[in-house]
Automatic annotation (TrEMBL):
Keywords: Transferase. One of its GO terms (biological process) is secondary metabolite biosynthetic process. It comes from Peltaster fructicola. This is Trichothecene 3-O-acetyltransferase-like N-terminal domain-containing protein. Residues 57-178 form the Trichothecene 3-O-acetyltransferase-like N-terminal domain. It comes from the Eukaryota. The keyword Transferase applies. Signal peptide: none annotated. Pfam families: TRI-like_N (PF22664). One of its GO terms (molecular function) is acyltransferase activity, transferring groups other than amino-acyl groups.
Length: 544
C-alpha cells in the first residue's frame, strides 16, 4: 500500500484593511461562559465547478481577511487580569489576524471519504469522542483552551476524498450565538463575492464597513463594583439567594459536593452496577426530527395546551420527558407508580439561556455582538411529566404541561435581579464560575435561529453545505445537555444530546423516540468504525 500523504499548513490572515488597536473588556456574562471553543463544521460535497482545494482556500482566505477587518475582535487575543477576568486585546497589524489552517487528506486512506461520513450522518461531535482529530484547526496538542494569549477565533479548510470541510471556531468569551452567526455568514458572503468577481474578470468588491463600536460596547453588562468581596461574603449571598453557588477555591470539598448535585445521575439496576464506570461515562449523540413527525408531535401537545406552543417548546418538552424517563429507567412506569418515581427521581427541572437584548430597558443596540443572555428555569412535577397511561391523550397532557412550562418560564424577567447577579459575578475575589443549584435535568440551548449556518453559500464550486455540525472543541462532555440545531431547508431539525452512556442507550431504544425521531448516531471512533466495516466487506463470510 502506498504511504498516506497529508499536506498541512496555515496562514496568518491579517485584516484586509487597517484596524484601530484597542482593548475590549469582556462582560460579566462572558466571564461566566465555559472556556471552550464552539465551532461550526460545513460538509461540502465536490460538484461540477469544484476547483483545486488551494484555489478555494485562497478565496476563503481573502474572504476571512475581510471579516477580520469588518469585525476586529475576531483578530484579537484573549488577556486575563489579576482576577482572571477576560478582555480582548486587538493589536495593530501585523499582530492582529486569524490563523487559517489548511489540511489536504485526499491521499490519507485512514481518513473517511465524504461519502463514508455522509452515510454515517456526519458523526462529528467534538473531535475527541468521534476520533476525528483532523477536524481540529491546528494540532490537538496546541489547540487553544481560552486562556491568556489564546486567539479569539481560528479556522480551517480541509480537502478529503469526495468533498471539503470548512471549520470556524470562536472562544465563548467573546459572545453567545449572535457573534458566530454574523461572522460565519459574512465570511461566506465575502468569499462568494470575491470568487464571483474573479470568475467574471472584475475587480474585487470594495471593503465592507467596519462594524460600529456600539455593537461591541459591553459597559451596560459590566456593573460598577465599589470593592471586591471575600469568598465568605460571596457564599453568604449565594446561600441567601438559593439559586446559584460559587466555585470556591478556598473550600474545594463544599464546591465538589455542590457540583455533584447539579445533574442527577442515572438509576442503575443491580446488574448494571457491575458495569457502572462504563455506563456512567458521558457520551454525545444526535437524533433527527423529520418535519412531518414534528408536526404530528406538535399537534399532540397542542391538543391539551392553553395558548400556542412553538415547535421548539414541543421538542424541548418531548426530549425532557423521554430523557428523564431514560435516565431513571422508567419506561413502562406510569405517573401513578409514585413509590418507584420517588425512589429513583428528582423533581424535573431544566435551564436554558435566553436572549435579553430586547428585554433590557433601554434595549441593547440591534445586532449587539457580545453575550447578552440570562439563565431561565422551567419545572414541572414528575407526575406531570410522566404520562398517566399509554394513551395518546395522556401523552398529550404530559407534553402540553412540559411545553407550557418551557414557554412561560421566561415571560417574567427582572432586569434589576439580573444586574444584581452580574454584580455578584464581578464581586468575587477572583473570576470563577457560578453554577445553578441542582438538581437540573438538562441545559437546553436553542440554535434554531442560526439557520443561516445551513443556508449560507460559499461561492462557485463550493455552494451550500450538505450538512453542518456544531462541535464544542476542548471541553469534557457534559452530563446533561440538549442542543437544538438550526432548522434544515426541508424543515427537519437535528438535536445534539449529551448524557451518561446508559441514558443514551435507553433513549435510542425508546419506542416513542423511534416513532417521532430518527436516532442518527452515538459518538464513536469514526475512522476505526469505517475501517472495521471495510475489513468486514472483505472477509470470506461477507463475500458468501
Amino acid at each position: 500500500m502506498a504511504p498516506s500523504i497529508v499536506t498541512t499548513g496555515s496562514t496568518w490572515v491579517e485584516p484586509a484593511g487597517p484596524v484601530v488597536p484597542k482593548t475590549i473588556v469582556c462582560s460579566a456574562i462572558e466571564n461566566q461562559c465555559a472556556q471552550v471553543y464552539p465551532a461550526v463544521a460545513w460538509f461540502i460535497a465536490n460538484k461540477k465547478g469544484t476547483k483545486d482545494p488551494l484555489t478555494h482556500y485562497d478565496q476563503l482566505k481573502r474572504g476571512l481577511a475581510r471579516v477580520a477587518y469588518q469585525q476586529p475582535i475576531l483578530g484579537g487575543t484573549l488577556r486575563q487580569d489579576d482576577r482572571g477576568a477576560y478582555s480582548v486585546e486587538i493589536p495593530p497589524a501585523p499582530r492582529a489576524g486569524i490563523r487559517f489552517h489548511y489540511r489536504d487528506l485526499r491521499s490519507d486512506m485512514s481518513f473517511p471519504t465524504f461519502k463514508e461520513l455522509e452515510v454515517r450522518k456526519f458523526p462529528h461531535i467534538d473531535a475527541k469522542q468521534d476520533g476525528l482529530f483532523a477536524l481540529l484547526p491546528g494540532l490537538e496538542d496546541d489547540f487553544p483552551s481560552s486562556s491568556d494569549g489564546d486567539p479569539t477565533c481560528l479556522a480551517q479548510f480541509m480537502a478529503i476524498r469526495g468533498g471539503m470541510i470548512i471549520i470556524m471556531a470562536w472562544t465563548h468569551q467573546v459572545g453567545d450565538l449572535v457573534q458566530p452567526r454574523v461572522s460565519a455568514v459574512e465570511w461566506a458572503a465575502h468569499t462568494t463575492a470575491l470568487a464571483e468577481a474573479e470568475n467574471a474578470g472584475l475587480p474585487e468588491p470594495p471593503l465592507p464597513a467596519v462594524f460600529a463600536d456600539e455593537l461591541y460596547d459591553r459597559s451596560r453588562l459590566l456593573p460598577h463594583i465599589p470593592h471586591l468581596l471575600s469568598f465568605e461574603e460571596v457564599n453568604e449571598i449565594c446561600d441567601r439567594r438559593g439559586d446559584v453557588f460559587v466555585f470556591d477555591p478556598t473550600d474545594p470539598e463544599k464546591t465538589a459536593r455542590l457540583m455533584s448535585t447539579v445533574f442527577p445521575t442515572a438509576w442503575l439496576s443491580e446488574k448494571e452496577m457491575n458495569n457502572e464506570d462504563h455506563l456512567r461515562t458521558e457520551l454525545g449523540a444526535m437524533i433527527l426530527f423529520p418535519l412531518k413527525d414534528l408536526q404530528k408531535l406538535q399537534a399532540i401537545a397542542q391538543a391539551s395546551a392553553s395558548g400556542k406552543l412553538s415547535v421548539v417548546n414541543v421538542i424541548i418538552a418531548f426530549l425532557w420527558q423521554r430523557m428523564y424517563i431514560a435516565r431513571n429507567a422508567l419506561e413502562g412506569t406510569l405517573a401513578a407508580d409514585a413509590e418507584i418515581i420517588k425512589q429513583r427521581c428528582t423533581e424535573p427541572a431544566i435551564i436554558f439561556p435566553g436572549d435579553i437584548r430586547t428585554r433590557m430597558d433601554p434595549p441593547l443596540p440591534q445586532g449587539f455582538l457580545g453575550a447578552a443572555v440570562d439563565i431561565f428555569k422551567a419545572a414541572v412535577p414528575s407526575v406531570g411529566l410522566i404520562p398517566e397511561n399509554g394513551s395518546e391523550a395522556a401523552m398529550s397532557r404530559s407534553l402540553a404541561a412540559a411545553a407550557t412550562a418551557v414557554r412561560d418560564s421566561n415571560k417574567a424577567w427582572d432586569q434589576e435581579a439580573h444586574k444584581e447577579l452580574l454584580q455578584l459575578f464581578q464581586s468575587a475575589p477572583v473570576s470563577v464560575p457560578f453554577l445553578p443549584k441542582g438538581p437540573i435535568d438538562f441545559l437546553v440551548t436553542d440554535h434554531t435561529r442560526n439557520s443561516a449556518f445551513v443556508t449560507c453559500a460559499w461561492g462557485p464550486g463550493l455552494g451550500q453545505a450538505v450538512d453542518i455540525r456544531e462541535p464544542y472543541f476542548k471541553r469534557d462532555m457534559p452530563q446533561g445537555e440538549i442542543t437544538i440545531m438550526p432548522r434544515k431547508p426541508n424543515g427537519d431539525i437535528d438535536v445534539m444530546l449529551c448524557a451518561e452512556r446508559v441514558t443514551m442507550q435507553r433513549l435510542f431504544n425508546d419506542p416513542l423516540i423511534k416513532q417521532f425521531a430518527q436516532p442518527l448516531f452515538m459518538a464513536h471512533n469514526v475512522p476505526e468504525a469505517v475501517a472495521a466495516d471495510k475489513a468486514a466487506e472483505f472477509t470470506p463470510s461477507a463475500r458468501l
